[in-house]
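Human:
Focus on the backbone:
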Amino acid sequence: MAEQYLSQEEVRSRIETLKEVLPSRLVNELLNRLNNVKLSDRQLERVMKAVVAEYYKSIVDPGEAIGIVTAQSVGEPSTQMILRTFHYAGLREFSMALGLPRLIEIIDARRKPQVPRMTIYLKPEYAHDEEKAHDVAKRIQAITIENLAKSVDVDYFNSTIIITLDEDALRYRGLSVNDVKKALDRIKGKAGEITVEGNSISVTVNAQEVSALKKMRDKILQTKVAGIRGIKKALVMKTDNNEYVIYTEGTNLEAVLLLDEVDSTRTISHDIHEVAEVLGIEAARTMIMRELKAVLDDQGLDVDTRHLMMVADVMTWDGKVRQIGRHGVAGQKVSPLARAAFEVTVKNLIEAAYMGESEKFKGVVENIISGRYVPIGTGYVELMLEHP
C-alpha cells in the first residue's frame, strides 16, 4: 500500500511545534526548505528528529571555554600546513599566497595583502561568452605606457624623452597613439611640450638634470592610459559550470562594481580592509570566515565553521577590522594583567598603574596569574552557602 503524503498545511503545522525546542529562525528555514516537498508522516518524523538531533549536537554548555577551544581548533591544524608561499593560478600569469603565509595575513589583518586579488563574476550574457569576457578583462586591466612602449629613449642633450609605441600592443588593447597622448597631457605641466610623429611621441622636459629626466621617464612609464587603477593583471578562466570568471592581481572593488557587465552580487575582493570600506563590516566578517575556510580546505584540514565564525566575530565586533595581536584584540583587552601577559609586560603594567586602572578578574588569563578560580566550566557557577 502506497504511503499517503501530508498536505502542506499539515507539514507546516507539525513543524511549527518545533518552536518549543528550536530557535524560530531555524524552524522558518526548515519550513522554506520543505516548501512544496511531498512527505509522508514517517518521512516528516525522521526529518524533524534529525534536525533536533543536529541542533542539540551543535549547542554548547554554559561556561564552556569556547575561546580556548577555538584557539586550539585553529592553532593545531595550522602547525600541519605546508609552508609554501606562492601558488601559480591558471597559466602561471600571477601568483597568490596560500597556506600558512595567507593564514597569518588574515589573522594579522594586514592592511596590504602580499598579493591583492579579486574574483570578478560577470552577468549571464557575458559570463558564457569567452570573447565578451576577454573584452571585459581588457577594459578592467590597467594599461600603462610601459605596457604599450616598444622602447623608451632619453635624449639628455635636448632634455627629451622619446617613446616608440608597439603597434601590435595598441591594436590588441583597442587603443591609439592619440589615447597615449591624452594620458600624457595629464602630466603636461610637469612634462612640457609633447610632439607626435607616427608611432613615436617626444616629451620635452623642463629640466636638464639627469636625475630629473630619469624621474620623469619613470613617471611617464607608469602613466595609466586605460583600465582601472590598481588592477595589474586580469586573467579569464572557465569554471566547472562553463562560466567565464575574471581573476585579477591587484584590487579596486569600488570601481569594478560600477561596471555594467559585472555581477556585483558575487564579485569579491580578497583584501579584507577594502571589503570593509566598500561593503561594510558585516561583509568583512563574512570575508574573513570564507578566506580562513578556503586556506584550511586547500590544505585538507577540517575545522568547525563555528570556530572560524568566532575568530571573525572577535576581529570585527567593534565595527572595524582588528588583528589578533598586541595592536588589536590582545592589546585592547580591558584587563591590565591580560594585556601584560601577552607582550611588553613591563610597559603595560606601568601604563595601567599610571592611568589608575583596576582589575576586575573577569577573564581567564588574569585569574590564572593571580591563582584564582577561572570563570569557565565549574568555575563559572557562583553559589553562596547559608549556614543555619
Summary: The chain has four domains: 8-58, 64-114+270-318, 143-226, 333-380.
